[in-house]
């Protein structure tokens, strides 16, 4: 049986490529942990995640541009919501394209919806690239920060446990004394 280091070393970059084509947050947080442990290279992870997440969102944008109207009109109940989102996109397209990456579960739906609007392709490409860079750096940074947090937390866990137990004992002692005085 192989350990974490074997799997990360052999399949880490492949997992990042596949994961960031789809959603990718979990994969990138784990990549940040692996970077902190020296198992993956920061620059490679960032470049790979930027490229693959960019390509994935461009694909969904293209699907929205090509087939989006047919899908929207296939479900008339969704039309008012979609039209409202399209108005928001036409007004706030830049921040929405960038922020969409951080909306877990909407990563594919957002670019497809952007594709149904008259938004020029070059505008989506530019802000999609900006968003891919920002998203990759933030999510990998969270993973690296979690490693740092866990390292410090694990080192202080015994002290924290003693402090919590003492606090519980003091609260119980105080409540007991209060009940006795009330009786």
UniProtKB/TrEMBL annotation:
PANTHER family: ALKALINE PHOSPHATASE LIKE PROTEIN, INNER MEMBRANE PROTEIN YOHD. The chain crosses the membrane at residues 12-34, 41-63, 121-147, 153-174. Residues 24-143 form the VTT domain. It comes from the Bacteria. This is VTT domain-containing protein. It comes from Pokkaliibacter plantistimulans. It holds the Pfam family VTT_dom. Keywords: Membrane, Transmembrane, Transmembrane helix.
């Amino acid at each position: 049986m192989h350990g974490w280091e074997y799997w990360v070393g052999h399949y880490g970059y492949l997992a990042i490529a596949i994961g960031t084509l789809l959603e990718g947050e979990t994969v990138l947080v784990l990549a940040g942990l692996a970077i902190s442990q020296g198992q993956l290279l920061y620059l490679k992870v960032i470049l790979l995640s930027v490229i693959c997440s960019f390509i994935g969102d461009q694909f969904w944008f293209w699907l929205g541009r090509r087939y989006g109207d047919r899908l929207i009109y296939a479900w008339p109940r969704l039309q008012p919501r979609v039209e409202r989102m399209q108005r928001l996109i036409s007004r706030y397209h830049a921040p929405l394209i960038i922020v969409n990456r951080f909306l877990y579960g909407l990563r594919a739906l957002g670019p497809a919806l952007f594709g149904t609007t008259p938004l020029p392709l070059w505008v989506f490409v530019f802000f999609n690239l900006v968003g891919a860079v920002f998203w990759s750096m933030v999510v990998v940074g969270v993973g690296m920060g979690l490693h740092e947090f866990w390292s410090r937390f694990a080192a202080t866990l015994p002290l924290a446990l003693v402090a919590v137990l003492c606090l519980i004992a003091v609260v119980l002692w105080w409540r007991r004394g209060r009940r006795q005085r009330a009786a």
